[in-house]
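[job 0417] fold request received: Phosphotransferase family enzyme
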Amino acid sequence: MTAEVIGRPADVASLLSRHRSVPVTVVSWEPVPPWAVARARLDGGPRPAERVIAKWTRPHANRTRTSAWRIRTELAALRFLSDDLALDLAPRALACDLATGLIVLTDLAPRVPLDQLLRADGSSAHATRLAAFARARGELHSATAGRAETYYARRAALGPVSLAEDVSGHLAEPVEKGRGQATVLGAPIRDRAERELATMLHELAEPGPFLALSNGDPEANNVLVHASGDPDVRLIDFEFAGYAHALRDAVCLHLPGPGWLWVRDDDLAAEYRRALARGVPEAEDDRRYGFGLAAACMHYALARLGRLPTVDARPPAHDSRPQLVATLEAAARTAEAHRALPHLAGWARQAAARLRRRWPDADLDLDAVPTYTPRRP
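[job 0417] inference complete; emitting structure tokens
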């Protein structure tokens, strides 16, 4: 056990003792590798025994945000949801020390990450939990749409932050990288597809009624569910939270994220849309919703195409190859289903066909692949 972890129980006890003005003792400490997280059991004197989650910051693979920025963002987002909106979709922040980067949260056990269950049992065994996951995403966006001012006032009190940066700060760079790789692949984006690319970026940068809070990573690993029985869910990991186009979070219901080979479930997409429409009536407008969703899916596909050199260097039969094909074809399918961005959809089909020829091992019948099939490392 590292010195960093050994010192944490005392830090948690000290933080909670100060926060509650009564002595608190940590009587058990269980690290949760590989994350900077531990589960602690407390003896709080007159309080009953209590279990909490301790989380601290350390360098992250995403170097665009500092550790201090991330802990402030998580604290603001969780208190915004619980205190300002009374929304029971995430853990509550019990105490935080911004100087040391330590935050103590309610323990959501016995819930477990949804992706673990999907990997172990397959999607059909957890249909109700997947539906609850999709609804929770829609409920988060429905409840937070139109409340950006409240969130950013809370977040700004903790340190500098920018709504504009959250909404559009990371839109153009992955698109340009993907465009470059499309040209290398022999499927450049030109003419009418290029004009649609500009409208896609404008849609995502100007969400209008679809501006809502995201936790920054909507995949199934950041959703906790009960392994059996109650499908009640909680969303976790708000270090990269911010307001952005809500439908960027819906992409994971249509396109395979990093952990999956193939994702397709129209019922889940409908669950999300119904939940979103309760607070964002524009989600019922097929044209408006479809264009936003197609834009979000195509942006994600272009960002993933930017990884072409990395995927190309991997050995034949590596799952990342058919996964990239699946991502492009799913983006095209989504756009076509909503009659949006037809020229970009045609380009995505062309790019996927070129990848199938480039990688014969990736020329698979994806319709025969079960949804939520894990991508092998």
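[job 0417] notes: Residues 1-6 have pLDDT under 50 and may be disordered. Residues 75 and 274 are 29 Å apart (CA to CA).
[job 0417] exit 0
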